[in-house]
């Protein structure tokens, strides 16, 4: 499909963040501009501390306004998010824009079962009865290829692996069908098998439901497989943005070239050989 004809779901215009200090404002995020079209995956890369997570938190209005000044516009399906009250954002988060974070353990509380938390989230955002929400949750877990979903609903987060929890989070997103999913290093804490499964399910969210995804990763391999377009961040600014093949084949900015060169070249075969 011609990308130019797809509708814009998320429009970020001049989003910037300044830290308020006694000595004056310190810029953490220089004005950034990007958009996400329906079903598009935008990869956000950059070394540690370049501002990727800060961008996520600014988009989701999760920054502490007493400490930070957030300017610019974040429009989700034409609706301005910047400046929304906490209550308004609570309604938007999860249902219209969801976050899949690096450490899924922190997204669940250890005192309630997975099922209780899953159905509660569904019921907060829909009119479904408890039973309907439960059935929907079980179906979503099944679709995520999680084994024995009915039993899984009765378990607690600490009884599940990181990869399983990550897939539960994606299953929740699947039920609520948010227009945008922000995935902040979703596979960093996982082993290779779980990484692949999580990436496959994220891709399914996009193909089956047309979800747009902002995929944050320092892993250029993941980005090259998943993203349509890539934005490169360095010291709180986007220094280069291009279609994925163009960025990998013809990087323009010195920092992008440096990132591509620094890519670990070790393959599974190298590791097996090294191990004898
Ligand atoms: N609450 C805060 N107070 C002060 N500085 C902050 C705060 N949050 C982030 N920063 C600064 O903003 C910069 C960007 O941090 P951020 O966490 O977004 O980086 P990142 O690219 O996500 O790194 P990583 O890959 O390690 O998660 C860093 O220099 C960090 O020190």
TrEMBL record:
Belongs to the ABC transporter superfamily. The keyword Membrane applies. GO terms for molecular function: ATP binding. It is found in: Cell membrane. It is a peripheral membrane protein. Residues 12-260 form the ABC transporter domain. InterPro entries: AAA+_ATPase, ABC_Ni/Peptide_Import, ABC_transporter-like_ATP-bd, ABC_transporter-like_CS, Nickel_NikD, P-loop_NTPase. Keywords: ATP-binding, Cell inner membrane, Cell membrane, Ion transport, Membrane, Nickel, Nickel transport, Nucleotide-binding, Translocase, Transport. This is Nickel import ATP-binding protein NikD. The keyword Nucleotide-binding applies. Its main location: membrane.
């Amino acid at each position: 499909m011609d990308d130019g004809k797809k509708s814009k779901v998320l429009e970020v215009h001049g989003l910037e963040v300044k830290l308020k200090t006694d000595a004056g404002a310190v810029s953490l995020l220089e004005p950034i501009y990007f958009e996400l079209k329906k079903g598009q995956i935008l990869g956000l890369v950059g070394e540690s501390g370049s501002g990727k997570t800060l961008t996520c938190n600014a988009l989701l209005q999760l920054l502490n306004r007493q400490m930070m000044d957030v300017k610019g516009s974040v429009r989700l399906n034409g609706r301005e998010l910047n400046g929304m009250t906490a209550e308004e954002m609570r309604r938007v988060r999860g249902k219209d824009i969801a976050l899949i974070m690096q450490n899924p353990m922190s997204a669940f509380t250890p005192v309630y079962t997975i099922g209780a938390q899953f159905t509660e989230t569904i019921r907060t955002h829909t009119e479904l009865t408890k039973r309907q929400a439960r059935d929907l949750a079980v179906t979503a877990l099944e679709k995520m290829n999680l084994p024995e979903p009915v039993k899984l609903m009765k378990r607690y987060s600490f009884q599940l692996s990181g990869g399983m929890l990550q897939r539960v989070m994606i299953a929740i997103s699947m039920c609520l069908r948010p227009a945008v999913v922000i995935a902040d290093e979703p596979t960093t804490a996982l082993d290779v098998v779980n990484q692949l499964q999580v990436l496959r399910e994220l891709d399914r969210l996009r193909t089956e439901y047309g979800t747009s995804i902002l995929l944050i990763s320092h892993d250029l391999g993941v980005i090259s497989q998943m993203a349509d377009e890539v934005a490169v961040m360095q010291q709180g600014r986007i220094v280069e943005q291009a279609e994925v093949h163009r960025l990998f084949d013809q990087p323009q900015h010195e920092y992008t070239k440096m990132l591509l060169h620094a890519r670990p070249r070790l393959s599974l075969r190298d590791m097996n050989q090294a191990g004898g």
